[in-house]
Amino acid sequence: MRAYGGGRGVTDLPTTVRGPSVFGIAARSIYLLEVGVFNTTTSAFAAALVRATAAGTPSGSVTETSEDSDVTPVAVVSLGNSGTPTVGGSIVQASIGAAIGAGVIWTFGGKGLRAPAGTANGFVITCPTGTAQFFDFYFVWEE
Hints:
Blueprint: E1 3-9, E2 21-24, E3 30-39, E4 45-54, E5 57-61, E6 65-66, E7 75-83, E8 86-96, E9 103-107, E10 113-115, E11 122-126, E12 135-142
Antiparallel strand pairs: 1-6, 1-12, 2-7, 2-11, 3-9, 3-10, 3-12, 4-8, 4-11, 5-7
């Protein structure tokens, strides 16, 4: 298994159903291993990771990378959504402190959290309390 990653700072304010995301490709499942969320302001907020079964309209691209420089990543990371994805309840949630750099790193054991093959399957970082906030984030996954 190869590890891949992608992340940056959000440009579209996340909501209770929108935020930065990682979605698989048609031919392969992805296994989410780690997610990081870090405050870039001095306002506290809540962040949650949710499973998505429809991508909505992803906005803002991120250059995904592979641990092997000659391998193309098998997922797409976006900075947000201009259309609402279909999301489930929170898998994990955390309060992020009111300090620049405050954050959380979620790690998932075993093979990680699976998103089945398909461009509509993935994960979204949301602000579940409805208080939108800019933050830095990253996703790490395997295929």
